[in-house]
Description:
The protein folds into two domains: 34-125 and 252-322, 3-Layer(aba) Sandwich (D-Maltodextrin-Binding Protein, domain 2); 127-225, Periplasmic binding protein-like II (D-Maltodextrin-Binding Protein, domain 2, 3-Layer(aba) Sandwich), CATH 3.40.190.10. The chain contains eleven helices and nine strands. The chain has helices at residues 7-25, 45-61, 76-83, 98-105, 141-149, 165-177, 189-198, 208-216, 264-279, 281-289, 301-322, and strands at residues 34-38, 65-69, 91-96, 117-132, 156-159, 182-185, 203-207, 221-225, 251-259. Mean pLDDT is 87; it is low at 12-25.
Amino acid sequence: MRSMKGFVPRILLGIALALSAAASSAGPYPERPIRLVVPWPAGGSSDATARIVARTLGEILGQSMVVDNKPGASGIIGTEFVARSPKDGYTLLWAISNHVTNPLLFKRVPYDPIGDFTPIAVIGYAPYLLAVNPNLPVKSLKEFVEYVRARPGQVSYASAGYGHSSHLGMELLSSMAGLSMLHVPYKGSAPAINDLLGGQVNVYMTTISDLEPHVKASRLRALAVSTLQRVPMAPDVPTFAESGYPDYEIVGYWGVFGPAGVPADVVAKLSSAINNALAHPDTRDKLHGLGLVYEPAGSTPEKFRAFVQRLLPKYTKLIKDAGVTPE
Length: 327
C-alpha cells in the first residue's frame, strides 16, 4: 500500500490553492443583480421613487437593480426580510419614516431600526398634503375642523398603515384640534387613494406626489400642506401653520439601508453611486416632479445614521402627544 506520508499535506495545499484561486477570481462588488426591497405595494410614491432611482443606480453600478415589493404589517414584513438577509450588499431596504416609528407603535417588532441595519444614504424628503373627497362639503382646513367637530367619530381618514406618517400626521392634527375621527389603515398609499377617490373614506394625508394629480383633475380637494412653508408643487395650498396650527409640521423621508454588518467598502460604493444617481439630470427631474426635496450636498452613511437617531426622540414625543398607544 502506498504510504500516506505527505498525502494529507498535499490535499491541504490543494484546498488552500483552490480557495485562493476562487478569492482572486471574485470581481469587485457588485457581481450580480441587487435586490431593492420596497415594503409597500406597487403603485404608491415609495414604489415610484424606488424604481426611478433603481434604474439610474443600476446603470452606474453596472448591474440590474430588482425592485421587490414586500408589503404588509405597516412595512414590517419587508423590513424584517432585509434585516435577516445576508450582509453582502445584495439585499437593500427602501425605507420611509415609519422605519423609526414602528418600534414605538407596535409591541412586537422583530428588529431594531438602528442596530439591525446599515445606513447607506438618504434619498430625500417629501412634504405631505391633506386632501378630502369633493363630496365632503369643506373647502379649507378651518371648515374641515368645524365639520369634524360637529360629527365626532363619523368622519373617516385613511392611512398607509398603522404608524405610517399618514397616520401620525392625522393623529397630530386630531390632538391639536380636539377631533375624533375613524382611522382606516391600508397596506400602502395606492389602495388608500383608491378608496378616497371612491368615497369609502373621507380624507387622507400623504406625499404630494400621490395626491396632486388627482387634485389637479378635481377628483380631490387639497386643504393644507404639512411643511412650514408652501411648496412649489402646490403653491396655492396653505400650510397648517397658516391655517391656525403654527407648530404643525411633519415631513416624510426616503432612505436606503442594508442589513447590519455590510462591509464598509460596499457601503461606500453604494452611497457614492446613490448620490451620483440623484445628481443625474433625468433622475433629478423625475424626482422633483414627484415633490422630492434633496439633501443639497448629498448624503453619507454617517449623516443618515445621525438623522435617524435624531428622529427617535422627535417621534417619541409626537406619538405621546397624539395619544397613540402601541398595538
